[in-house]
Amino acid sequence: MPELPEVETTKSSLAPLLNQTITAVEVFQPKLRWLMPDDLSSLVGYSLKKVERRAKYLILSFLPTSKVSAPTKDGASNNPKLRQLIIHLGMSGSLQQHPYGTDKRKHDHLILTFSRDGGDYTQLHYHDPRRFGAVLWYDDYKSKLLDHLGLEPLSTEFDADYLYHFIQRLSHDNNANVNKKPIARPIKSVIMEQQVVVGVGNIYAAESLYLSAIHPATPANSLSYQQIATLVEHIKATLERSITLGGSTLRDFTVASGQTGYFQQTLNVYGRQGEDCPSCATPLDNIKLNGRASVFCPNCQPL
């Protein structure tokens, strides 16, 4: 599944489409995780003004060009109106740019054609073999998809104070935690919970815990403040490094330019069960937490 670094890489790769205008919308298979809106063609004449990421969702913001007026509900023209799409890549989805006239491939469910100044056409293909992703109007699904999400891991708000106080249920800035018992769930499960911090998927959780010398099954409330601070530092560094390397190469995942990520070539533990630990040569072990593989070094990450 594309994780936060892959989605961030996708966001960056869409930059060449900024200020380009949509000239055609082709929907080939609207049945994804949720049904695509039946009025996506109303984006024709709109130009892409901003691409943002929230957790693993992409938010594309469009405004009509000077030659097009946004319709109001009664059909009359109005001042330019912002329209936004929210896109999720699901388990195996991707957004890829292709030259105009590129043939549709199997599992290309949506093609947006962009043009710069009436020429220089580019096609953006939404490709999703498993059809578990989503292409939706932002206003219709914002509350359902985004309002419950926790902090962004690369934000200044996500720090040792936040995570330690959250786990220990101290008052700090979260009054809802007062009088609740400290969280004793495995630390790997906690940092993968989207209500706590978004985008720390299985790969990045395993790698961060290894670099922090913390066993993935360690009860979260047993960790010291310094251990939490070390973990937060490695979560941020691991995600930033993966973004720099273009994300991980995960099955069919490629970014809009067609490139694949290289972070997977640098992994210490994820997917390496039975191989030697890079630090001490102890064979790496694997346990399951919440149904997810959790590879670790028994020597470097004692429970």
Overview of this protein structure:
- The chain is 21% helix and 22% strand.
- It is built from six helices and ten strands.
- A hairpin with a 2-residue loop joins strand 2 and strand 3.
- It is elongated, with a radius of gyration of 22 Å.
- About 9% of the residues have low confidence.
What fold name stands as the CATH topology of the largest domain?
A: N-terminal domain of MutM-like DNA repair proteins
User: Superfamily at the CATH H level of the largest domain?
Assistant: MutM-like, N-terminal
Strand content: 15-25%
- How large, in whole angstroms, is the Cα Rg? 22 Å
How many individual helices? 6
Helix percent band: 10-25%
* Low-pLDDT windows of residues: 68-79, 249-263
Strand order of the largest sheet: 1-6-7-5
SS content category: alpha+beta
CATH level-1 class of the largest domain: Alpha Beta
Total number of distinct structural domains: 2
Q: Quickly give the CATH architecture of the largest domain.
A: Alpha-Beta Barrel
- Bulk shape: elongated
- The span between the termini is 29 Å
Round the mean pLDDT to the nearest integer and report it.
88
Strand count, sense and barrel status of the largest sheet are: 4 strands, antiparallel
Q: Please report the total strand number as a whole number.
A: 10
* H and E string: HEEEEEEEEHHHHHEE
